[in-house]
Each structure stands twice: as structure tokens, then as C-alpha cells.
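Thread: quick sanity check before group meeting

JM: Hey all, I'm pulling together slides for Thursday and realized we never actually wrote out the predicted structure for the chain we discussed last week. Dropping the sequence here so it's in one place. If anyone has concerns about the input, flag it before I start.
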Amino acid sequence: MKDKVQNSKVKNYYDMEAEDYNNIFYIKDDEYPPLKFRHKYILEMISEESLSENSTILDAGCGPGELVIDLSKRFNNIFGIDISDEMIRIAVKKQNERDLKGKSILFGVGDIEKLDFQCNYFDVVVCSGVVEYLENEDLWIKEVKRVLKTDGLLIVNVTNKYAVRRWTMPFFTAVKSLHGVYFVLNFIKTNLLGKEKLNRFPFRPRVHCPSEFDDFLKSSGFEKISHNYFDFSLLPYPLDTLFDFLLLKIRKNMEKKSHSDAWLTGNGYIVKCRKKA
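JM (edit): ok, ran it. Output follows.
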């Protein structure tokens, strides 16, 4: 029951925020767009593998569909699911607006904890920006392992709990919930600093220790191949936002060290692993 309540909150939130999410993270021109770096690393992780153009790929948590559409430039059989109806609506609209003839691209509303696919079906499963919104690891990892072929690839990202940016997050999350405080902080961020609006989740996204997450994947029957950190920060929140104009180029340049063990500065952690027999 608790899982269903959490899923409902996540779905409702992203149904309301889908347009803004798409515009902020994929449409808006930004000098340092963290999610576009995440997108880039996932594509690189897949391109490193010797996969045929007819490989079957699932993007579980596809959002507005950008990764699926980019993957269609090389692969023919791609599925994108998301818990949000609005995200899928935007993804389908993009699909219809672009010339993707000869490609089998299927978008649909779906839940990674209850995948509507047969066993051993996919060569690759991508799970990006999803795990942090789930209650625990029990269901999603079993479902992903079930639908992946032996030696199939799993690419998954989590939020790094040890990143310097997150040190003050619990305090400011509590402050934002106080009456009237969110509106003041949001005004400062959007009108004075010229940034995107302040997040106010009706749920608490989870964070992970990268090394412990690696151990979890190993114990679940996956062999790690590589990793990338992304979205680098040098100061705790909100100092990183206030002084972004001074640190922006440095943060962007730090992406060159994405493959290193940047557990202190990288806010996001992506890992590529292979399902063992």
C-alpha cells in the first residue's frame, strides 16, 4: 500500500510538471545542462557495446522521450515507458513531429516495478531518474532482471548522498515546507537569480551511496562495467546556486573527470552493468 501511495504522488507531480520539466531540462538553452550530460553518458555507454541495430531497448522512466528518440538513430526496436501520462503525451508528440520512418518506437504508460513485458526480452534496459522515486530496491531490480536477457545491459543512475551539494539539503527541504517560505525562496531564485523554479516535491526522493549501490547490483546478479558521475558542485546548497556565475565553467569542466571516483562533487551517479548467467 505504501508503494502505491508513493507511486501516485510521483505520477501526479510529474503529470503537473511535465511541460516545465521538458522545457527546463531539454528545450532551454543552458550553458551547463546536467541532464543533457547524463543523456550523453548513457548514449556513450550504449555505443561502446557491440549491439546490432535490431537490439531491443527499454527506457524505463523515459520522461519526455529524448533518449528514446536519440537511440532510434541507431536502433530499430525501442520502448519507452513512464509512470506519467503527460510525459508520454509529450514523448508521442515529439515522435510524431520527427521523421522516424522504419523505426519501431513504442511509448506507453508503465511502472518499472510491474513491467508488462515477457522474460528475457531486452538487450538493454535504461533506468534513469527513476530509482530515487521508489520506496526501495525490492521490486524494480527483480523486474529489470526478469526482462533482461542473460548478458543484457542495465544502465541506471541514482543521486549521490555524499555529494557536497547535498550536505545542507535536509535542512533546506524542511525550511521550504514552512508556510510562505517556499514562495519567498522561489521568487529569489526565479526573479533575482534568473534560475528555474524551486522544486517542491510532495515526496522525499531517496539518495544512495555509490559504492553500496554497486554492491547491491553485484548481489542482485549484475557485473559492473563502468560508471560516470555528472552534475558537479563545489559548494553545498544553496551556495552553489548563489555563486553559480563564478563556478559554472569550473563545474562544466569537471565533467571531463566523469569516469573518476568523484563521490564528493558529483551529484548524480550512473552505472553500466551486465546481467550474469
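AS: nice. The mean pLDDT is 92. The chain has ten helices and seven strands.
JM: adding both to the slides.
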